[in-house]
Amino acid sequence: MGIFGRRKSREERAAEIAGKVASGKGFHGRAARAFLGEADFAGVQQSIGAYNSAVDVRRLLAAGAPTTQAVVVSISDTGRLVNFDPVVDLVLQPSGAAGRVTLRTIVSKLRIPRAGDQVLLVADPGRPGHYLYAGDGVQR
């Protein structure tokens, strides 16, 4: 504990800075927006959003949120990496649903799904009717 309260860990500080960059606020956010330009800054925002959705999925699964099986219809690379894992666009067919779902998410480079593979989805509590990618269900 520091003199003025609990000291933040590196992970907490990094998450705080990433949030400011994504929102374009604070010193880090304004500097990123100024140096990157609008197109590249939008890409950074999407990558941070994909990272945050992966964190949300881990929290939801730990809390026991129900999952939905889905079949991968197609997968395409966006050309972006987050922590050396690719950000991809997935088109999925949830079991028992008539429509298809399109997601932009981070996948592990060791477990990239292919067309026809079964994956898991979790309902997004922030956006009713939308899903978050929860991986292939195999524990590492």
Mind explaining what this structure looks like?
By secondary structure, the chain is α+β, with helices and mostly antiparallel strands. The protein is built from three helices and five strands; from the N terminus they run H-H-H-E-E-E-E-E. It has helices at 10-23, 26-36, 38-62; strands at residues 67-82, 85-94, 101-106, 118-123, 131-133. Strands 3-2-1-4-5 form a five-stranded antiparallel β-sheet. The radius of gyration is 17 Å and the shape is globular.
Elements, N to C (H/E): HHHEEEEE
Q: Please indicate the percent range of residues in DSSP E strands (runs of 2 or more).
A: 25-35%
The assigned structural class equals alpha+beta
Tell the overall outline. Answer: globular
Q: What composes the largest sheet?
A: 5 strands, antiparallel
Helix content: 25-40%
Low-confidence stretches: none
Give me the Rg, rounded.
Answer: 17 Å
Distance linking N and C termini: 34 Å
State the strand order across the main sheet. Answer: 3-2-1-4-5
Mean pLDDT: 82
Tally of DSSP β-strands: 5
Compute the number of helices: 3
